[in-house]
Write a structure and sequence with these properties.
Blueprint: E1 7-8, H1 16-30, E2 35-38, E3 41-45, E4 49-51, E5 56-59, E6 63-67, E7 74-76, E8 81-83, E9 86-89, E10 97-102, E11 115-123, E12 131-137, E13 143-145, E14 148-155, E15 159-165, E16 173-176, E17 179-186, E18 190-195, E19 202-203, E20 208-215, E21 222-229, E22 232-238, E23 248-257, E24 260-264, E25 268-271
Parallel strand pairs: 1-2, 2-5, 3-6, 4-7, 5-8, 6-9, 7-10, 8-11, 9-11, 10-12, 11-14, 12-15, 13-16, 14-17, 15-18, 16-19, 17-20, 18-21, 20-22, 21-23, 22-24, 23-25
Length: 278
């Protein structure tokens, strides 16, 4: 990559965590370039990083963040993007979240450039702990909408992807209208896990999951749990017979409605919602 068009992590000093954060802060403050490039190599991450608004984080093909400790890996502000990330959890103590999206940042304008693509999240410690992508809203007017996720792989985690919307003290909060395409979930305890009301005041609706590949293993307990209205899931669930918890691997909860669930495979569906199809 042309040095003139990116801030290189290796241009900064300190620990690997400090180098990455300094590069991000520099790009956020100066704005030109607003791209942070992570060259080939392993970077030991022991602190939570914050991807600032308007910054694009790009990884070389052989670049990896290797995480030690029990802290979130990346908190992501609005209008930021990530391409090519490889995040490896190498600490059995880790039980936090890799990518954190907090509705307080109000990701709701579709003209923002928020895009997250070609991302690998692997817990190779063998603990099956931690959450890959976590989207949450809990305060009045919190919102996460129109984010784009493409070519995402989550391996060996407890929960691959979680959407959580808590009832605010007043008003409404949302995680609506986000797109997840070409997502592979492998050897996780839980795949997609949603927790919200059916609709307002704490709503998770209109989220689309397409081209899902969910590979179950002996640790798997549930592939999908759905809440909210008009969510759509399409793809494949593999090897239901391997799951540690026999029974309904897809749960359309009582807080789900108008779900369209097109997940093929030899598994059963527990439908406690209204007007769901599968």
């Amino acid at each position: 990559m042309n040095q003139d068009h990116a801030v290189f992590v290796t241009d900064f000093t300190g620990s690997d965590s400090q180098k990455v954060q300094q590069a991000i802060n520099h790009a956020a403050i100066n704005g030109n370039p607003s791209v942070v490039y992570v060259p080939d190599g392993d970077y030991v991450i022991t602190e939570t990083l914050i991807l600032r608004e308007g910054v694009s984080l790009i990884f070389a093909y052989d670049a990896r963040f290797v995480v030690y400790g029990n802290q979130d890996v990346l908190h992501i502000e609005k209008d930021a993007s990530i391409t090519g990330a490889y995040i490896a959890i190498d600490d059995s103590r880790f039980n936090r979240r890799i990518f954190v999206f907090d509705g307080k940042y109000k990701y709701y304008n579709s003209w923002n450039r928020s895009r997250f693509q070609q991302i690998h999240m692997v817990n190779w410690s063998g603990s099956h702990k931690g959450t890959g992508i976590h989207l949450s809203s809990s305060q009045p007017s919190d919102e996460i909408s129109f984010l784009q996720f493409d070519d995402i792989k989550a391996v060996g985690l407890h929960t691959a992807l979680e959407i959580r919307v808590t009832k605010p003290s007043s008003g409404y909060s949302w995680v609506n209208a986000n797109n997840f395409t070409n997502v592979t979930i492998d050897d996780c305890v839980r795949g997609i896990w949603m927790n919200s009301s059916k609709t307002i005041p704490n709503e998770a609706s209109g989220n689309h999951f397409t081209n899902l590949q969910i590979q179950l293993s002996s640790v798997s307990q549930r592939a999908v749990r759905v809440t909210g209205d008009y969510n759509y899931l399409h793809g494949m669930i593999w090897d239901a017979d391997l799951a540690s918890q026999m029974g309904d691997l897809v749960h359309l909860t009582s807080n789900s409605s108008h779900t369209e669930c097109r997940l093929r495979g030899n598994h059963s569906v527990l439908d406690q919602g209204t007007d769901n199809t599968y």
